[in-house]
Amino acid sequence: MKGMTIIVKKITQIMAPIIFLFGIYIIVHGHLTPGGGFAGGVIMAGAFILLILSDGSILSSLRKEESGLEFLESAAIMGFLIIAGIGLLISGTSVFFINFLEKGTVGKLISAGVIPIENIVVGAEVCAAVSTIFIALVVFKDEVSK
Amino acid sequence: MNSLIPLFVIVPLGSAFLMAILGRFIKGFGKFLTSFGLLFLTGLSLYFIFNSQGTLVYKVGGFEASAGIPVAIYMVIDGLSKLLLLIIALIGFLSAFYSISYTKQYTAERKFYILFCLMIAGMNGIVISGDIFNMYVFLEIAAIASYALVAFGVEKEQLEASFKYQVLGGVASLLILMSIGFIYWQTGTLNIADISTQLPTSGAFIKFVSILFIVGFGLKAAIFPFHSWLPDAHSSAPSPISAMLSGVLIKAIGIYVIFRLFFNMFPISYEIAMTITILGTLSMLIGVLLAIGQWDVKRLLAYHSISQMGYVILGVGIGMVVLSKGGDKTIAAFSILGGLYHLINHSAFKALLFLNAGAVEYRTGTRNLKRLGGISQKMPVTSATSFGAAMAISGIPPFNGFFSKLIIIIAAVQAKFYLLAFFAVFVSIVTLASFLKVQKYTFSGKLKPAWEKIKEVPFSMAFSMIILAGLCLVLSLLVIPGIRDIVLKPAVDVLLNTIQYTTTVLGK
Fold it and tell me: Is the ipTM of this complex over 0.85?
């Protein structure tokens, strides 16, 4: 896949980190403001996709990216399942998905027990999944046009 | 014991993603983890069948109902769910064990097992969910995994079959989601037990939503006239997957949900009961008539799946008609018992038949009946087990198919559906004819010179086939009253006492 002009490249290089940071902000404030793991994850993936679109990429390096992302995706889902499963194991209650941490004060960044952790894991998973879908489409297009 | 319920979803889901992480470093990790996980689930479901009474309700996240309104996602295990869980785990285990040798021909074995586990997780989720929207989510997990598995061989016809399946499956999912939306709009709740207390007892709304559900889940269950995707999808998939699709998937995501919703959620009405019974009869007749002319053995088996599912729907449908007319409850119970019994039996013999077809294809590379012939000398295990399964599906005693068909036919006569009873007998005879054809062209006769060098299949494939053939005989024991009361009666009671589900789940 070919890259775009220098203007696009330069502006993307400046914008992409900001978009990425915004995605992280949305994820960690998931329990306080609108948005959360899913929305933030999509924004983070958007930053990656912008970079790939503007700079262009080689097929072989995309393949490597894809396998790394697949690993991140599976690891994130495992993490989510483990957090949900811990609730089943600890204490006498043994309830799947129970919020076993301190709830804290409403409105503080560190509050709401396991929900922020779950949001972070969901964010990683969605970011990896959306990027994988994008890369799969690019690889498919390159292979067909060959 | 309640805390063990989420394991039915955690174990397959966890093993799927553990395989995705560790499978790339450890060779052969996927095959053994899948088999062990499913063996564990088989044990767990047997434990539930023999050690728990009545309905178990589990609230995810521990949220209690506030002011009588259920807040949490409910997981419900009752007699019917236990039966389905056992079928899913057992047939899943045998198919996974069979796959250990069978999947050597594929390059992406790891992905095969990941998708397999995801499909199991989806089906288990549907069966234990007490919440109609979660049912939809799990249905999509199972359906999407099965789309990918049908196309797993990536050859032309497999991709075409998968595409057809995806389009029709997508239409079905859309209709189901739409009707769930309508129900939510009308009642303001998604919990099945809660919906049944909120729904109006009659009127146009109920009829409209019922029809949407019948079409949506009918497409998933491949009831006539929504069956056109099934022969393609089930015959092109890898054989262990065909066994899972025909033996388990159409039951768990189609038939089970229809029974659950129309008995326990909607008020039973005569019109809907008649619709379901007539659709069942038509699938039974048309499936078998389409099957008899097929020369591709897996395609023939796939058409028989439509026909045999017709028996199940006919049995339970007659029970529903009798219940809706306020008739004799013992006849209704007997009829539903026949339907559910046939559901279990079908999963055993149809899975076995697909595994046999897979074994023949594994050694000879063809599914065309005209090219096969006389291979019973070379593959005695496959031939013997296939004979047992063919006799079971055609209803020859002492195999299990005979008893369940007999119960359905007797119940139809008792409920004064003489024509339906006649059709059931007729379809059974045509089934026998078409399976004699399979036996004759595949296994008996003179050995064709092309098959001089073939051998019997490897151990893992033979093991699964022998166990299933044993099951075809052992399941006949379910007619004995003592055993029937433990396994089948709780499931029949769930469907028979339609309102009890709501009261026990809501705890009123």
Answer: yes
Kindly state whether A21 is in contact with chain B, defined as any CB-CB distance less than 8 angstroms. no
Tell which phi-psi region holds residue B480, choosing left (phi > 0), alpha (psi between -120 and 50) or beta: beta
Strand partners, B77: B56
Residue A1 belongs to a domain: no
Domain count of chain B? 1
What distance in Å separates residue B266's CA from the closest CA in chain A? 30
* A84 in a structural domain: yes
Domain that holds residue B406: 2-506
Give strand ranges (E) for B280-387: none
Nearest CB to A98; choose among B13, B17, B61: B61
Among B211, B334, B203, smallest CA distance to B261 is for B211
DSSP string computed for B432-452: HHHHHHHHHHHTSSPPPGGGT
Query: What is the tens place of the pLDDT at every residue in B332-355?
Result: 999 999 999 999 999 999 999 999
Domain containing A34 equals: 6-145
List chain A residues with CB under 8 Å of B58: 96
Contact B395, B402 (CB under 8 A): yes
Q: Which residues of B touch A (CB under 8 A)?
A: 3, 6, 10, 13-14, 17-18, 20-21, 24, 58-62
Burial category of A18 from C-beta neighbours within 10 Å (exposed 0-12, middle 13-18, buried 19 and up):
exposed
Partners of residue B74 on adjacent β-strands: B59
**Residue closest to B241 by CA, chosen among B107, B96, B349:** B96
Neighbouring C-beta atoms of residue B7, cutoff 10 Å: 17
B70 Cα to chain A: minimum distance (Å): 16
Dump strand ranges (E) for B119-185.
Answer: none
| Cβ within 8 Å, pair A88-B3 | yes
pLDDT of residue B434: 92
pLDDT at B504: 85
Cβ separation A96–B6 shorter than 8 A:
yes
Structure-token pair, residue A12: 């993307």
- DSSP 3-state assignment of B190? coil
pLDDT the model gives residue B166: 93
Q: Are B450 and B379 in contact (CB under 8 A)?
A: no
Which residues of chain B register pLDDT less than 50?
none
A18 Cα to chain B: minimum distance (Å): 31
Q: Are B34 and B113 in contact (CB under 8 A)?
A: yes
| pLDDT tens digits, A69-83 | 888 888 999 999 888
Number of domains in chain A: 1
Chains A & B: contacts with CB separation below 8 Å: 44
Contact assignment for B60 to A95 by CB distance below 8 Å = yes
Residue A117 lies in a domain: yes
The answer to whether position A68 is within a domain reads yes
What distance in Å separates residue B125's CA from the closest CA in chain A?
14
